[in-house]
Amino acid sequence: MTTRRSLLAGLGTCGTLTLAASYAQASGVPAPRGTSGGQGAMIVSTWDFGAAANAAAFAKLRAGGTLIDAVEAGAMVPEADPTNHSVGYAGYPDRDGHVTLDAVIMDDAGGVGAVAALENTIHAISVARRVMERTPHTFLVGEGATRFARDQGFPQQSLLTPESEKAWRDWLKTAKYQPEANSENRTRTPGGALDHDTIGLLARSADGRLAGACTTSGMAFKMRGRVGDSPQVGSGLYVEAGIGGATSTGLGEEVTRVAGSARVVASMRSGASPQKACEEVVRHIAHLRGDAIRGVQVGFLALDPKGNVGAFCLLPGFTYAVTDAHGVTKVLKAASLFQA
Ligand code: SD4
Fold this sequence. Notes:
Elements: H1 4-9, H2 15-27, E1 42-46, H3 50-62, H4 67-79, E2 101-107, E3 112-118, H5 124-134, E4 139-141, H6 142-151, H7 162-174, E5 199-204, E6 210-216, E7 237-240, E8 244-250, H8 252-256, H9 260-269, H10 274-289, E9 298-303, E10 309-313, E11 319-323, E12 329-333, E13 335-336
Parallel strand pairs: 3-4, 10-13
Antiparallel strand pairs: 1-5, 1-11, 2-3, 2-6, 5-6, 7-8, 8-9, 9-10, 11-12
Helix pairs in contact: 3-4, 4-5, 9-10
The protein binds N-hydroxy-L-asparagine.
N-hydroxy-L-asparagine binds near residues 219, 229 and 230.
């Protein structure tokens, strides 16, 4: 009988790839990560500021990068943006004044890396990728994640800007330590403090392969140690070969409760379109939580291997950016279950 051990024993130096390829063949899943996007690729991402992220992701594909290269490059755009206070540098801190970042990256061949409560490194998505590629693990958190990033040579710096610190200090005066949910749904002032939010990206290659990334500084002024949906596989992001990918935004606790993105993909696996799948999960959250989600925003964005896109949310206001195979980007408004 061929066992995993005997298979491994017979492998040479490039044995891991060979083994992965043979598993892929046996399961009908195409070859592992590394698929190039090329012509016909597509990128979608959460919120209007996703347009700039899509552009970076699309350019990466055009230059011959992989889907993972693309979603990483896209996520890095808001991470470095000092006017974006819910992703990366200049993110709003936790209630004790520490900026902590959560991120996950995933392909459709089982590649996953994530970090949570990461401090002092701007590009949490790149640290998540490093977890995927350089460790035997899928998820590092807190001090361990922070140390790993430092040991891997990521530049270390404070992520708190004077503007974010001021917002935190103002909040301290009246907050009674209640974290701020739904900052994404505030009235937006272009360039203003609450103008941007968490990003989830999904990328599709011309041959229908998929990858995704999600990165955030999480809920503004959260309890120290709080981790939302974004870095959790199945909650903030899920990607499955031949079926589709989904990502979420909004109040993470409501997404985590139902493993939201995995549920969207499960619904697609049962035959729902990306749109119907997003609707099904938003309705499920509303049904499950009743009055508890009054005034709360949750949104899902989904993409299938053919390039069909779906988006749906609890409250009006969730926008998303779609970049088509020609590199043309449109920012669209998702339909919502409730009116304001
Ligand atoms: C979180 N889901 O940490 C993130 C925040 C977010 O729109 O996406 N806000 O809960």
